[in-house]
Amino acid sequence: MKWILLTICALSLTSCSYLTEFYIYNTSEGEIHITYTTKRVTNQYPFITNPVVKDFRSFTRVKDPTQPKTIALSADSLTIKVTLLPKQALYIGAESNFNLNSASDRHDLVQNLESLHIVTSTDSITLTPDVILPYFEEFDYEHVGIIFPLKKEQ
């Protein structure tokens, strides 16, 4: 009986948490050039200052590339420039227990973003914190991202 009470007590004191990763996915046939500017140097919020280029098969199956790509950054740079090939994703950060329907989580998602600029051979778009949120999609509780090319109805 004592063991059961201790187990129940231990389980009630522990909580389940998960980590949501944020990406910009290139599903186009060509390369895309991404430039984003952050408000501060950080590795704690989405739109971090040390992003990572990864390969993906689906929006929930993202993996490190076979040939890692180095992104040249200065230690105090607030502007990040990256080129993504087709089927590559840019990891831009993570957040614990994130929910896209939560107002505070949506605020956290864009609090470090100044602007995001995406350029292709035929098009370009600039997104700011006040207009970017509708472009984010939640694929599962561990993967949230922007799919490029962007959907026209947004």
How does the SSE layout of this entry go?
Elements: H1 2-13, E1 19-26, E2 32-38, E3 52-58, E4 61-63, E5 79-84, E6 88-96, H2 103-110, E7 113-119, E8 124-127, H3 129-132, E9 136-140, E10 143-148
Parallel strand pairs: 1-10
Antiparallel strand pairs: 1-6, 2-5, 2-7, 3-4, 3-6, 7-8, 9-10
Q: How does this model look, in words?
A:
A 6-stranded mixed beta sheet has the order 4-3-6-1-10-9, with no helix packed on it. Strands 5-2-7-8 form a 4-stranded antiparallel beta sheet. It has helices at residues 2-13, 103-110, 129-132, and strands at residues 19-26, 32-38, 52-58, 61-63, 79-84, 88-96, 113-119, 124-127, 136-140, 143-148. It is α+β, with helices and mostly antiparallel strands and 154 residues long. 16% of the residues lie in helices and 40% in strands. The chain has one domain (22-146). The chain has 3 helices and 10 strands. It starts with a helix and ends in a 6-residue tail after the last strand. The longest helix is centred in the N-terminal third of the chain and has 12 residues, at 2-13. The chain is globular, with a radius of gyration of 18 Å. Residues 1-19 form the signal peptide. Keywords: Signal. It comes from Rasiella rasia. This is Lipoprotein.
